[in-house]
């Protein structure tokens, strides 16, 4: 932002502090000359010119000076105008607009008023100017691309052709722009009804691709591969057509029949597909020795390039979703109008990127759910900000005791650990008994019972050192995301791995990967969400491009810590291939705990495992053994084992609502406190508040817990219970929901009901 104010006053100060609050860089110029000089150096997005005191400079003249420079065409210029007495006529804004101003601001020295004005401009005019600025890049790309590009409006009047089009057709763009396509000479080599077929297709808003003969300016016909795409514009109507054309290459010198080459909406003719699939690829290549000098080799170079493209298109690399869309497209052609319209809606849904994310009702309907989804399933507003949030690594949060063997565990702790195979195991009692080091003690017990040291060929001393290293890298200052949470998730993971159907679906490498992933899945967690880190411009958010920031960090740091020192490197004795397989499984499971893909993971599990297994149970009339064999085949495929492991760690990570009530209440209090602390910090730093309902002064903990259960937990655990058979957990979940619902009906916002009066 450039502020052009001759004198410093409360108005210029207000804009300065508003820029600071918004995280915008700001310069101040006192004279028209210094304003132009500064603008030409910095190319500001917003310029604010003081128009209240014409004795210093004429604001319109300053604006014209800036608008006379080339970089200003995409700059938003704001005029600050004086307040008028209520009885005076409001002056016209036209003189300001004619001078080059974008908008005006009636003087107001409130920092909040200036901040709101700047933010509105950023989200409105500035973003529009960014798009316009990007258009220059787009046109530069069009000018230099080798495909011929022709853009027409909805009435087929030519509005743009690029140099490649001019070269191919022999016209200059001045001879074409403004003319209707019907005015240009046509080749008589096309099938009689081809133009009508193309028009019918593109007027429906569908893309057309096929072979077409065009007539060059010289009168010669040229065979082209043409792709015409309708562009939807204002009012949801087709406003333009973009045609991309290139010479049709036939390296085998065969004439292709147009009625077989034509395709609309991505439909290939059977003959074309057949010829592409069975053509000898070696015949498509061009001998480099046949290429002549640069001056005469343009067609040959193009042919070589298009030959390569043709070979790429002939490969049978096609995503399943693409096949589904092509099948639906084909079905539409022979369907009644009502069915075709319904299929259009289906295609619209399938082409979105958020296939597995349910659409929420309006924010007013359920603010708790919306805030949870906003906080857990998005990566923030990605706002450019000067704020930096860098948390300490907290690698030595407390002096850890020397490693202990499983036999040396103090008797009270050993007695607690005897119950670790029970779901009702109280991890919080272990936390207290171990002075907030439950992960090392529980890890030793569980890893030993699953034979992890034997599998990894490492000593118990190495395992102990590793567990202490990982536990020391959790933040004990976090109320929720600390090593007790990691121990809790490890306990749930081990419990699930012991369930018969899970155990029979996975091998020992899967089990070891799951236990390690559970142990490290939140290592070095800062007690803030991904959205917070992205909004704060943290080092981690920048490092991981605002995508799965924390989960990527947990996985990467776990391996960095592990291999850093031989004393704690539990992987040092396994061979390279086994390590790569194990590493990939651990990373995949840690990344699965990220909530943005929650519904995708659950939906895939339900559709690939729950439903097929249920179908076998329902339709099987043979013996129980063959029934089990069919279900085992489903469970044991590599793809489905991956889904089982992801579902396992996802459920272990958020199993608190399925724990006994007292544990459920304690965990609810801890996660709420962590979210409250985040909201407090967002307000202190002037960051967007990601989850406004988690305000410690107004939040209803029962409502937030019910929303979390309704939206994330119930369906996922229904699916996991159907697979792993967990009646005890489901009973706890039901009882806990009733507890929170009872508190909510009492209008109680806290963890527990008020004491009786």
UniProtKB/TrEMBL annotation:
<dbReference type="InterPro" id="IPR000014">
    <property type="entry name" value="PAS"/>
</dbReference>
<feature type="binding site">
    <location>
        <begin position="481"/>
        <end position="485"/>
    </location>
    <ligand>
        <name>AMP</name>
    </ligand>
</feature>
<feature type="domain" description="PDEase">
    <location>
        <begin position="405"/>
        <end position="747"/>
    </location>
</feature>
<keyword id="KW-0378">Hydrolase</keyword>
<dbReference type="Pfam" id="PF00233">
    <property type="entry name" value="PDEase_I"/>
</dbReference>
<feature type="compositionally biased region" description="Polar residues">
    <location>
        <begin position="290"/>
        <end position="304"/>
    </location>
</feature>
<dbReference type="GO" id="GO:0070374">
    <property type="term" value="P:positive regulation of ERK1 and ERK2 cascade"/>
</dbReference>
<keyword id="KW-0597">Phosphoprotein</keyword>
<dbReference type="InterPro" id="IPR057304">
    <property type="entry name" value="PDE8-like_REC_N"/>
</dbReference>
<dbReference type="InterPro" id="IPR036971">
    <property type="entry name" value="PDEase_catalytic_dom_sf"/>
</dbReference>
<comment type="pathway">
    <text>Purine metabolism; 3',5'-cyclic AMP degradation; AMP from 3',5'-cyclic AMP: step 1/1.</text>
</comment>
<dbReference type="InterPro" id="IPR035965">
    <property type="entry name" value="PAS-like_dom_sf"/>
</dbReference>
<feature type="region of interest" description="Disordered">
    <location>
        <begin position="260"/>
        <end position="304"/>
    </location>
</feature>
<feature type="binding site">
    <location>
        <position position="705"/>
    </location>
    <ligand>
        <name>AMP</name>
    </ligand>
</feature>
<feature type="domain" description="PAS">
    <location>
        <begin position="141"/>
        <end position="205"/>
    </location>
</feature>
<feature type="binding site">
    <location>
        <position position="521"/>
    </location>
    <ligand>
        <name>Zn(2+) 1</name>
    </ligand>
</feature>
<dbReference type="Pfam" id="PF13426">
    <property type="entry name" value="PAS_9"/>
</dbReference>
<dbReference type="InterPro" id="IPR003607">
    <property type="entry name" value="HD/PDEase_dom"/>
</dbReference>
<keyword id="KW-0479">Metal-binding</keyword>
<feature type="binding site">
    <location>
        <position position="522"/>
    </location>
    <ligand>
        <name>AMP</name>
    </ligand>
</feature>
<dbReference type="GO" id="GO:0046872">
    <property type="term" value="F:metal ion binding"/>
</dbReference>
<feature type="compositionally biased region" description="Basic and acidic residues">
    <location>
        <begin position="260"/>
        <end position="275"/>
    </location>
</feature>
<dbReference type="GO" id="GO:0004115">
    <property type="term" value="F:3',5'-cyclic-AMP phosphodiesterase activity"/>
</dbReference>
<comment type="subunit">
    <text>Interacts with RAF1. The interaction promotes RAF1 activity.</text>
</comment>
<feature type="binding site">
    <location>
        <position position="522"/>
    </location>
    <ligand>
        <name>Zn(2+) 2</name>
    </ligand>
</feature>
<comment type="similarity">
    <text>Belongs to the cyclic nucleotide phosphodiesterase family. PDE8 subfamily.</text>
</comment>
<comment type="function">
    <text>Hydrolyzes the second messenger cAMP, which is a key regulator of many important physiological processes. May be involved in maintaining basal levels of the cyclic nucleotide and/or in the cAMP regulation of germ cell development. Binding to RAF1 reduces RAF1 'Ser-259' inhibitory-phosphorylation and stimulates RAF1-dependent EGF-activated ERK-signaling. Protects against cell death induced by hydrogen peroxide and staurosporine.</text>
</comment>
<dbReference type="GO" id="GO:0007165">
    <property type="term" value="P:signal transduction"/>
</dbReference>
<feature type="binding site">
    <location>
        <position position="522"/>
    </location>
    <ligand>
        <name>Zn(2+) 1</name>
    </ligand>
</feature>
<dbReference type="Pfam" id="PF23198">
    <property type="entry name" value="PDE8A_N"/>
</dbReference>
<feature type="binding site">
    <location>
        <position position="653"/>
    </location>
    <ligand>
        <name>Zn(2+) 1</name>
    </ligand>
</feature>
<dbReference type="GO" id="GO:0071364">
    <property type="term" value="P:cellular response to epidermal growth factor stimulus"/>
</dbReference>
<keyword id="KW-0114">cAMP</keyword>
<dbReference type="InterPro" id="IPR023088">
    <property type="entry name" value="PDEase"/>
</dbReference>
<feature type="active site" description="Proton donor">
    <location>
        <position position="481"/>
    </location>
</feature>
<dbReference type="InterPro" id="IPR023174">
    <property type="entry name" value="PDEase_CS"/>
</dbReference>
<protein>
    <recommendedName>
        <fullName>Phosphodiesterase</fullName>
        <ecNumber>3.1.4.-</ecNumber>
    </recommendedName>
</protein>
<dbReference type="InterPro" id="IPR002073">
    <property type="entry name" value="PDEase_catalytic_dom"/>
</dbReference>
<feature type="binding site">
    <location>
        <position position="653"/>
    </location>
    <ligand>
        <name>AMP</name>
    </ligand>
</feature>
<feature type="binding site">
    <location>
        <position position="485"/>
    </location>
    <ligand>
        <name>Zn(2+) 1</name>
    </ligand>
</feature>
